[in-house]
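Thread: sanity check for a docking pose with pyridoxal-5'-phosphate

Original post by kr_44:
Hi all, I'm comparing my docking run against an independent structure prediction. Below are the sequence and the ligand SMILES. Could someone generate the full complex and paste the structure tokens? I mainly care about where the ligand ends up relative to the chain.
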Amino acid sequence: MSAIASLFQEAARLAAGFRQTIPARHMPAHDYATSLAAFSEPLPTVGSQMLDVITQLAGGAEPGLHATTGPRFFGWVIGGSHPVGVAADFLTSAWGQNAGNHTAAPAAAAIETVAARWLLDLLKLPAESSVGFVTGATVANFTCLAAARGEVLRQVGWDGDARGLFGAPEITVLIGDDAHTTVFSALQFLGLGHDRVLRVRTDPVGRIDPAALAGALERVSGPVIAILQAGQINTGAFDDFAAIIPPLKAKGAWVHIDGAFGLWAQASVKTSHLSRGIESADSWATDGHKWLQTPYDCGYAIIRNEIAHRRAMTIAASYLPLAGEGERDPSHYVPELSRRARGFATWAMLKHLGRDGVAALIDQCCASARLAAELLGREPGIAILNEVTLNQLIIRFAADSPDEEGDTMTRKTIEKIQADGLIFAGGAKWHGRDVLRLSVTNFQTTSDQAELAAESIIAAFRSVGRG
Ligand SMILES: *Cc1c(COP(=O)(O)O)cnc(C)c1O
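Reply from moderator J.T.:
Ran it for you. Here is the predicted complex with pyridoxal-5'-phosphate included:
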């Protein structure tokens, strides 16, 4: 066997071996400090054999790997890195394409064209929209908001892409109080300021209050960007798009939606009522590496106005206008020039699951979330603070005790759950109080797994209660 073949086979063997340990894996044996020690040595003067390097890498990393790809990992909102996506990603790395343009990487550019068409179809978004394949929803939000910034300024006669914001007309940014932190980062990167926003009041599950929004709209004039949300990070709640997008559009606002995971509600008839009206926005940010289960480093910036998208992202203005010529240069839709060919893993996941498979995946996660909520809600002292309409739950322990005591019990229960290690879930503050969060975003989280999770949480709470 050639050296390359044995090297790649060994990597594949190690990868498959790791995946086999996942169902039984608990918290990582190594924390950050131990992992650091495992790799700490001075920069080697002399190199090592290829195979030895890969063996050492796997040996050093494995004890510090979390079971994020497993069926009982409920922390943050983390997708499962599906084996088909991973295999496509192996090939992507091996092929080594620089997916910047269609001459350097014809297949990588072309498969983005097809995957983009599929995504728009699946997510029921306007077919004329353009899609940038980015690293994740943070950069998707950034890309969409860059297009928004350019377009709302252009409409008042200012070329912000060329002249910047110095001396530009002021843009009002309207945003809900419970928006995701990375949207504020995107505003910061764009010179719009993470604090220089008009925050709109939200309800107990994090939805923008339409009356508060109407009040805010009466007070603003000039260019407006409004940022709405499909899937609040803790509660999974959706803004009421059908009610609030029309008045925003009447005001001439660019409406952007952060739908990092929630946009996928569009893909199932059981959940698409949640996102009703979402297609009338101007841009949408979502992730492949969350609910679509692609490996990490995959998100999509979707923009109705392709010209605005390209104006904001294009590397040189002389490239314009190429739209309509029929050849896609992926770098025109993203901030980077040289980049990973993310279309391959996206195509592989969509081809593997199909429209029905994506819907079934969304439905299974939501059903497991509802089942966990139902089982947990039967236990005295445990309260589910949100209506579980999607895949997210927030849970409060000693819920009938005074606030401080409930906070303490919630934190202690979370510690116990993590120490037991049958599942992983973490805490958050929700409207000032401690909660446990569960996000069901893995293709393997069936009802059995949801039952196990509920049992483990109840057992942890009872044992903490016994002191
Ligand atoms: C995860 C998430 C983001 C950020 O996405 P990344 O893929 O981590 O960059 C933004 N908004 C929401 C609602 C999210 O859940």
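The chain has three domains: 3-65, 88-350, 355-466. Hope that helps with the comparison, let us know if your pose agrees.
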